[in-house]
Amino acid sequence: MNLYLQLFYEFAKTGLFAIGGGMATIPFLTKMSDKTGWFTHMELLNMIAVSESTPGPIGVNMASYVGYHLAGVSGSVVATVGLVFPSLIIILIVAQFLKRFGNSPIVKAAMYGLRAASAGLIAAAGISVAKVTLFDVKALESGNLLGFFNIHSIVLAVILFYLTRKYKKIHPVVFLVASAAVGVLLNFAV
Amino acid sequence: MGELIKLFLVFARIGAVTFGGGYAMLPILQREVVDKYHWATNDELTDYYAVGQCTPGVIAVNTATFIGSKRKGIPGGIFATLGVVFPSIVIITIIAAFLSNFAELAVVKNAFAGIRVCVCVLIFNAVWKLLKGAVIDKLTFIVFLVVLLLSSFTDAAPANLVVAAGIVGLIAKKIGGAF
After folding, report:
1. Same-domain status, B72 and B154
2. Spatial distance between the Cα atoms of B107 and A29, rounded to a whole number of angstroms
3. Are residues B74 and B160 in the same domain?
4. pLDDT at B99 over 90
5. What's the N-to-C CA distance of chain B in angstroms?
6. Which conformational region is residue A104 in: left (phi greater than 0), alpha (psi within -120 to 50 degrees), or beta?
7. In chain B, positions 8-47, which contact chain A (CB-CB < 8 Å)?
8. DSSP character for A149?
9. How far away is chain A from the Cα of B35, in angstroms, using its nearest Cα?
10. CA neighbor of B33 nearest in space, from B87, B76, B86, B91
11. What's the farthest any 2 CA atoms get from each other in chain B?
């Protein structure tokens, strides 16, 4: 099979079966690595690191990265379009359905429950980022109670929390860029 | 055509500043799509995220498709989707071509350690805004809390939690006589 077709096919399959966000694509990419030999598991780990350190949805970044490695810029486009193709079709259908039946009492009743669950899942995602960013669980396990708190990060979080609530007009990107600068100036990763 | 190009450009801008996946995109979406362009409400965003959890694909991309198709039908969905992935393709291609050790650079690691702190704060602010529409009575508060706990402390798949919550909603409204 033509490499581009195969790239499109493999990533469309990933896009179709990976339910629940970017990280859900990783098991599929591991399998893809075993099956096609396009990249090793080591390279996959490197790709995950790059995808997490660049803007954009992680699943999309992974597709762009793998596609580029195999077939340059056009490979990166083909893999990315392949990844989003199945969900594009499905969401367009769901959107039509919601447009037509969104006001029916049954759909409204389901949405009444769904919305609360959706908010709960997003809050849980926030907590999981906070867990790895603000605290160091490993330090606690080794009995180092002070090391458990990433003091730098917690102080920055409190300041940001105050500023984002006080200056609601400022675009979130301004806070993101400022936080990146603080991270670099104070060596946050150490 | 002008509206389609606008959808592409706005979502490209959103994609370019989404650090850390679909959830981190929520605060940016609220600012751009809800506050600035009025293309969707906070409640609709909550719905899109709920559907995005149980349908295949990347949540950030699914949300873009939803908003685009709401604005301009099928072409709108396609343009918004291409817009949100466009910056990734450009940025990743540049990094893959020139900076093979990008993720190892000290400056990148430090910058992202700072960005992650900001992402948590922004996500909490974003959830706060959604709660007004999502948690409106005792039952929705319980659903919110149970999903939050199950998702944090068990391996429950998000899709199953969303579907279960939808069924709870249906049963509650059926008993209440809504249909």
Report:
1. no
2. 28
3. no
4. no
5. 41
6. beta
7. 15-23, 25-28, 31, 43, 46-47
8. B
9. 10
10. B76
11. 62
Interatomic CA distance for residues B20 and B122, integer angstroms: 12
- Nearest residue of B to residue A183, measured between CA atoms: B114
* ipTM rounded to 2 decimals: 0.85
Amino acid at B24: A
Q: What is the pLDDT of residue A149?
A: 82
The reply to whether B57 and B42 lie within a common domain is yes
Give the 3-state secondary structure percentages of chain A, helix then strand then coil, rounded to 5: 80, 0, 15
Question: Which position has the token pair 């700072």?
Answer: B114
B92 in the same domain as B11 = yes
User: Does residue B160 sit at the A interface (CB-CB below 8 Å)?
Assistant: no
Residue B3 corresponds to which amino acid? Answer: E
Domain total for chain B? 2
**What band does A103 get if pLDDT is binned at 50, 70 and 90?**
confident
Q: Is B35 exposed, middle or buried (0-12, 13-18, 19+ CB in 10 A)?
A: middle
**Six token digits for residue B41:** 């409400």
